[in-house]
């Protein structure tokens, strides 16, 4: 998943699923693995959870998936992980809603000798079997480099950040800021959190546009916020005039990129992330030592790329 060719193949496979669908798999029984994930109303996490279930079925693993209601529901997530510990599951995966806040419950799992794997968003403490994720710092840098290229090195740029307490949000911000601030002709005029939420993304985009009517580009740190930003751009008849880049590779965003409403999305392979989680959980249950970090790759799908690739897939656009 690290080579450019490998990433392109994976993205083509992802697009085939997005636009053509995927068959269901039969359920099997086996080791019990828990997954405490962020809100399943978010398309990226829904895709991740579905992939985890499909992989678990293939491997004969019983998967318990628990979702917190929103990206800031720390107390709820702690209770969910505590419940998994009480159930004596064989391994636990956590998509941390707060990287510091989940440390105590990870330590509880450590005391119970249950392997803990962090997925997509890691924790700032506790003993972890591994961390499986997109390199979010790299993703932020890639977003910045792409934005500078699209704007030909000049113009006002803004960022719509994720949840301040999340490790993934911090890394995406750090990477993007690093590249944009190093570009002499680019002016970073605003960088505001919208908590990975669509409605909040629209609200923040409206505020940014009011303060900066000559904005040239915006990077939203997930596709939900980008789609919210798109609504604000539509209201001001600025679609296509302000370069809009999202992140996740969510189906709705990929379709918006194909249509030219969004200009691109940084694709993280969430299906692969959760497939890797289930496979790694089984390895941890079997006593295998895992690498501290498993990078699942990242790339950018822009409108030009989407039209080129979808022209080769021969699948209907839904």
Give a description of the structure.
- This protein has 318 residues and is α/β, with parallel strands linked by helices.
- It has two domains: 4-134 and 269-297, Response regulator (Rossmann fold); 136-268, 3-Layer(aba) Sandwich (Rossmann fold), CATH 3.40.50.2300.
- It has helices spanning 4-20, 43-59, 74-86, 103-111, 136-150, 167-182, 198-211, 223-235, 251-259, 270-285, 303-313, and strands at residues 32-37, 62-67, 91-94, 116-119, 130-133, 155-161, 186-193, 217-220, 243-248, 264-268, 293-295, 298-302.
- Strands 2-1-3-4-5-11 form a six-stranded parallel β-sheet, with helices on both faces.
- Strand 8, helix 8 (223-235) and strand 9 (243-248) form a beta-alpha-beta unit.
- The chain is elongated.
- The two termini are 28 Å apart.
- Mean pLDDT is 89; it is low at 1-5, 20-28 and 313-318.
Indicate the topology.
Layout: H1 4-20, E1 32-37, H2 43-59, E2 62-67, H3 74-86, E3 91-94, H4 103-111, E4 116-119, E5 130-133, H5 136-150, E6 155-161, H6 167-182, E7 186-193, H7 198-211, E8 217-220, H8 223-235, E9 243-248, H9 251-259, E10 264-268, H10 270-285, E11 293-295, E12 298-302, H11 303-313
Parallel strand pairs: 1-2, 1-3, 3-4, 4-5, 5-11, 6-7, 6-8, 8-9, 9-10
Antiparallel strand pairs: 10-12
